[in-house]
Write a structure and sequence with these properties.
The complex is a heterodimer of chains A (413) and B (579).
Chain A lengths: L1 H11 L10 H11 L6 E7 L5 H4 E2 L4 H6 L20 E2 L5 E2 L7 H5 L3 E8 L7 H10 L11 H5 L12 E4 L14 E3 L10 H12 L4 H17 L19 H14 L6 E6 L17 H20 L6 E7 L19 E7 L6 E3 L20 E2 H13 L20
Parallel strand pairs in A: 1-8, 1-9, 5-11, 5-12, 6-7, 6-8
Antiparallel strand pairs in A: 2-4, 3-4, 5-10, 9-10
Helix pairs in contact in A: 1-9, 10-11
Chain B lengths: L1 H11 L29 H12 L7 H8 L1 H8 L9 H8 L8 H7 L3 H8 L9 H19 L20 H9 L2 H9 L3 H11 L1 H10 L2 H11 L1 H19 L3 H13 L9 H13 L7 H9 L2 H6 L25 H10 L9 H10 L3 E3 L8 E3 L9 E3 L2 E3 L6 H11 L2 H15 L6 H13 L4 H9 L17 H11 L3 E2 L3 H9 L23 H15 L6 E2 L2 H4 L6 H7 L7
Antiparallel strand pairs in B: 1-2, 3-4, 5-6
Classes of the chains: A alpha/beta (413), B mainly alpha (579).
């Protein structure tokens, strides 16, 4: 893999001297590639297996309440003393967890769609394997060395932006690894060498590094550093009073918004939010309190702030969320849930045909459950991602993106 | 031009990968098995040993190994108890007193606000140490005073008196805006009974500035003012960093890092804040060269692991306590699954969902006596599922009680899948990202033959052609922790306090004791190869070589000029990122 990657990197570097060209010129060069603004796909990973049944609540399903005597989200209610803890009705059968109230208007305005009973068909209940499969885009296949987002980047002749694929966080996620350049950054401001002379020497040394992977990463890094030079140290104020929640996830989305709006050529972005592995005390004394409620509040507020901040740029953007698997339909012995199977996915964007819960509901009666314990899977996550890659990102052939699988589109965009 | 200077530094920093010997550094594809047969010359073998079995060579280490003889040096490292520990390290660790405490002692001596409240209510005794007791009583007095003002008192941090009411204008100015030495002088000129109040009044910023100049005992008091419960986590992290840099028992420290990560627990999960110190000290470090079964059992019975993977709350569905009670607790699979997947067999080790559930049933009743007070492991028969179980085809008869879980440990600790899984993981850490299968097989055979003797497994690895091969040499990217520790060692840095180094490791992407997932951090080089991480390494390299990381002093800074930071460049170079 490494040699192919290096070869590709070298050929794309035929763009002489980009590393030292003024930033405005670089930007003009990249921008001139295509007259239209680039489409952007933002993927969010909820690490730890979010409890989809308490996020998108099947309040019309009787079995849901019998399986979860102490941690079910109450049915929608208009009573003033119950409203705060009750599911927010979507379509008479499903409802959102009350902490996701900031997303409800987006659903009502048809900018938010949900796909339920979706996920990876692989039976594993290992966090690590399941995340790996979902990010590689090849469930059940461990030998895949790259990720679906990297493979989904449109193949273009000539110059590509060094920040076309960015991930917020300390490590480059599996989904973004591969032949195309992809950048991991913790913050835009920290993305530089704070000594100009040293920066030159490092750039020089890394361009001659003996290790091909270090050489390629070094080169990508310095190209991206120079690309981001102009927007670094500029104060950024989110538009329209968008209010990102404190914490890493809100900060990640805020910086993704800033990067997209700066027109530096972002096409794929990735952020993750951990802490969903609620084996114990998933809810507090009330549905609107406790671990899941707090995490969903942060999650919903961040997505809603991103929407507000992006404004009409959301015409070009689709945000899609996923988690490695769902959790047991029945609550466990500690007011929590163990590792399960199918889950829900969210899609948000101007082009998304929202206001609808997609997918086929398999039911929660004993014989309908997967292996007698988990929500069964009726939509492969690659159907959702495949449609976005093909119709939104504009990579017409999905063969290379999801090898060995032929995604069936649901009409989401 | 400057490149030559830098390469000079690179060689000073014991990096043998110079252009002159690049024949050994030009890597073909790592999967090319032939590389693992091409043997290194003696001098590079010494480099290889220092790169893999220590946290990086210090100046003079290679000569010392040569003088002792490589074989003998390795043998010593494999018997850490016989190595005389570095007295410098022992002095530096002395102030970090939580490292020698039990969890329950820590809970009392470094209490959370909730624990302080329980002390007031008489539920928990005050600490025995008179100074500690006084400190906590002061804390209470302030909380009470605040309550008296009737402002809700939901916030447990006592309101500090403003600085201007405590000291004169001149002293206040020195404390707030002086040089570190001026701040220290001003502080030490205060009467002793006023000092703690002044610390509280200073606020975090000026406190930190005072910290950099303070002697160890004053630092301790500053940390206490920042919040007693934070001291525990700080000691833990600083201790790890100091041992990596200073310990003479380097291989033991490397193995401690490896096995802690293998049996990962997360510092920020509730009671684990107080449990991890003893866990690492008593369950992990003392077993890294012993029998795997002992290591596994020590983790299985540690409150740290029982709490982290929720087993302490797992109750058999038909256990005496569960029967007849509404909303009673029940089975929790978390530990049972991670035991099989991560600690022993590996995800492809041949177990089923049924095995997970059955193993979880065996461990019901393995719980903790009062986790919020730092209590220890105990078996509670009232929570145990006493029925018959079958784990990995082995029948465990009904009525076994505590021994059910022990039987599961016996089965998995000696399982061929475990031997293979652990051997591969060790080889991945010590030999190469994709270690040759033949080596892994030999290590696994030793594991099975010796009943899981981890020292014997290491010996097999260290006697192998593969370990001493061209394919292994400098093929691994350092983890952030390895990078930071090795940089300080390479510059022979003097570490006064290590917390800023710990923060740097987090900046580089590996917050210590804070990997939330039970997988631990990845063993693979690729994990750490990304642009943000690379830039953070370069920035750290420049800072540490220029004496801009607080608490660390290096001589290299004297030689450096701001426009040509040679040592920093060498530490940030591609060569230095490898081991």
């Amino acid at each position: 893999m490494s040699t192919r990657r290096v070869f590709l990197r070298n050929s794309s570097l035929a763009m002489v001297g980009v590393g030292s060209a003024p930033v405005w010129l670089q930007r003009a060069l990249y921008a001139s590639d295509s007259p239209a603004r680039k489409k952007v796909l933002v993927a969010i990973f909820q690490r730890g297996a979010a409890d989809g049944l308490n996020v998108v609540v099947p309040h019309g399903e009787k079995a849901y309440y019998s399986l979860r005597p102490t941690i079910a989200i109450p049915r929608p209610s208009t009573a003033s003393d119950k409203r705060e803890d009750a599911a927010l009705d979507l379509d008479g059968f499903f409802g959102l967890h009350p902490s996701l109230a900031p997303l409800k208007p987006l659903y009502d305005q048809r900018h938010l769609a949900i796909v339920d009973a979706a996920g990876s068909p692989d039976p594993t209940r290992s966090h690590f394997d399941a995340q790996d499969y979902m990010e590689s885009g090849t469930p059940g296949r461990k030998a895949t060395s790259d990720g679906w987002m990297n493979r989904a980047l449109p193949k273009v002749q000539g110059k590509v932006s060094p920040v076309r694929a960015i991930s917020l966080g300390p490590v480059l996620p599996r989904a973004m690894r591969g032949d195309e350049p992809a950048i991991a950054l913790q913050s835009i401001d920290g993305f530089q060498v704070r000594n100009a002379e040293a920066a030159h020497q490092f750039e020089e040394m890394y361009s001659h590094a003996k290790d091909p992977l270090l050489r390629a990463t070094g080169r990508e890094t310095f190209e991206a550093v120079s690309m981001l030079q102009s927007i670094r140290n500029q104060p950024y104020t989110p538009a329209a009073g968008a209010n990102y929640p404190r914490g890493r996830f809100g900060e990640s989305l805020r910086q993704i918004a800033q990067l997209i709006k700066s027109d530096v050529g972002v096409e794929m972005a990735f952020a993750d939010i951990g802490g969903w592995d609620h084996h114990v005390n998933e809810l507090g004394a009330r549905a609107s309190e406790g671990q899941l409620a707090n995490l969903l509040r942060e999650y919903g507020q961040a997505l809603s702030a991103f929407w507000t901040d992006m404004g009409d740029r959301m015409q070009d953007v689709v945000v899609v969320t996923m988690s490695e698997f769902g959790r047991t339909a029945r609550e466990n012995g500690n007011r929590g849930t163990d590792h399960g199977h199918a889950n829900s996915m969210f899609l948000m964007g101007g082009a998304v045909k929202g206001g609808k819960v997609y997918g086929h509901w398999p039911g929660l009666e004993k014989e309908q459950l997967y292996e007698g314990r988990d929500l069964a899977l009726t939509t492969d996550f690659r159907d959702v991602l495949g449609e976005l890659v093909a119709r939104h990102t504009g990579t017409p052939s999905l063969k290379g993106v999801f090898p060995g699988y032929d995604p069936k589109f649901l009409g989401l965009v | 031009m400057c490149n030559r200077v830098v390469m000079g530094w690179v060689s000073v920093l014991c990096l043998a990968a110079l252009p002159g010997i690049s024949a050994y550094a030009t890597k073909k594809s790592a999967s090319d098995a032939r590389q693992f047969f091409k043997q290194l010359p003696y001098d590079l073998r010494i480099q290889q040993a220092l790169n893999r079995l220590t946290f990086g060579p210090r100046p003079g280490d290679a000569q010392q190994v040569k003088a002792i003889g490589l074989k003998k040096w390795i043998d010593r490292q494999l018997h850490p108890d016989e190595i005389f520990e570095n007295p410098v390290l022992e002095t530096k660790l002395r102030t970090l007193d939580t490292l020698r405490m039990s969890a329950s002692q820590m809970v009392r001596n470094y209490p959370t606000p909730q624990t302080v409240r329980q002390m007031v209510q008489g539920q928990i005794p005050f600490p025995e140490d008179p100074d500690r007791r006084m400190m906590i009583q002061k804390l209470i007095a302030k909380t009470e005073a605040k309550k008296g003002q009737g402002d809700g008192a939901a916030d447990n941090t006592p309101e500090a008196m403003p600085l201007r009411d405590l000291v004169g204008q001149e002293t206040a100015r020195a404390l707030r805006a002086g040089t570190p030495q001026q701040r220290l002088d001003a502080f030490q000129s205060l009467p002793k009974d006023k000092q703690d109040e002044v610390l509280a009044a200073l606020g975090p910023g000026p406190r930190q500035a005072l910290f950099t100049a303070a002697p160890p005992d004053l630092r301790r008091r500053i940390e206490m003012a920042n919040g007693p419960q934070q001291v525990v986590a700080r000691d833990l992290m600083e201790g790890k960093m100091l041992r990596a840099i200073y310990s003479n028992r380097q291989l033991a420290e490397v193995l401690d890092d490896f096995w802690f990560n293998h049996f990962n627990v997360f510092l920020d999960k509730g009671a684990d804040r107080y449990y991890i110190t003893a866990y690492e000290r008593d369950a992990i470090r003392s077993h890294v060269l012993g029998k795997f079964h002992d290591l596994l059992e020590a983790t299985a019975k540690s409150p740290a692991m029982l709490f982290y993977l929720d087993n302490w709350q797992s109750v058999g569905p038909d256990a005496p306590q569960a029967r007849g009670r509404k909303n009673s607790r029940g089975l929790n699979e978390n530990y049972g699954r991670e035991l099989l997947e991560l600690h022993t067999l590996g995800v492809d080790g041949g177990y089923t969902q049924k095995d997970v559930t059955e193993a979880a049933r065996c461990f019901t009743g393995w719980t903790i006596n009062q986790p919020q007070r730092g209590g220890s492991f105990f078996f509670n028969g009232r929570l145990h599922d006493n029925g018959e179980k079958t784990v990995l085809g082995v029948k465990i008869p009904a009525g076994g009680g505590e021994s059910d879980g022990e039987k599961v440990l016996d089965i998995v600790a000696r399982h061929p899948s475990t031997a293979h899984f652990l051997s591969r993981k060790l080889a991945q850490r010590f030999v190469a990202d994709d270690p040759p299968a033949s080596l892994v097989d030999r290590m696994a055979a030793t594991f099975l033959k010796t009943d899981g003797d981890l020292r014997a497994v290491m010996q097999t690895m260290l006697a192998s052609k593969e370990f001493w091969s061209d394919g292994a040499y400098r093929s691994k990217l350092k983890s952030p922790f390895e990078m930071v520790a090795s940089a300080v060692r390479a510059l022979n840095g003097d570490v006064d306090f290590a917390f800023p180094l710990v923060n740097q490791v987090a900046q580089l992407g590996q917050p210590l004791y804070r990997k939330q997932e039970p997988t631990g951090y990845s063993n693979s080089s690729k994990e750490w190869l990304n642009s943000g991480g690379l830039l953070a390494r370069m920035n750290f390299a420049l800072q540490v070589a220029d004496n801009r990381v607080p608490g660390v002093r290096v001589d290299a800074a004297k030689a450096a000029k701001p426009d040509d930071p040679v040592a920093g460049i060498a530490l940030g170079s591609p060569e230095f990122q490898k081991r």
